[in-house]
Amino acid sequence: MAEVPIPRGRLLHITAILMTIAAAIGSLGRMLYTGRHNHSVLLILLFAGWVLLPFLGLLLANRSSRRWQPPHPRNLFILMLVISIGSLISYSGILIPAGTKPAFIFLVVPLISWLLIAIITLPAISRSGKSKV
Fold first, then answer.
1. Looking at the whole model, is its pTM more than 0.85?
2. Three-state secondary structure readout of 33-56
């Protein structure tokens, strides 16, 4: 039986979704590992929520991207990959300058992620609401 090729746009979409889910799991695991000596359950839960929220936001934006006009969905899929890879690299500790508290990275990376999500999604959302003439 012949294999049906996956269109490039669809392959990017599938890859972006899978990478976002994998990065969310990896980021949560890295956050839990880094905070393993912290005995405050509330603080761990708050950090977990803050670290996972950008990934949830990306997946929700992906869901609404079906109504967006090109090239906005493609830009979102690329952003999903960039944030996923960037988060995993940032949380790995490779780029952390000496003397930086580990919690700082887990606070700043989601904030930067949200700023990037807003930059990419707000124009797409504003244009999708306009009717075609």
1. yes
2. HHCCCCCCHHHHHHHHHHHHHHHH
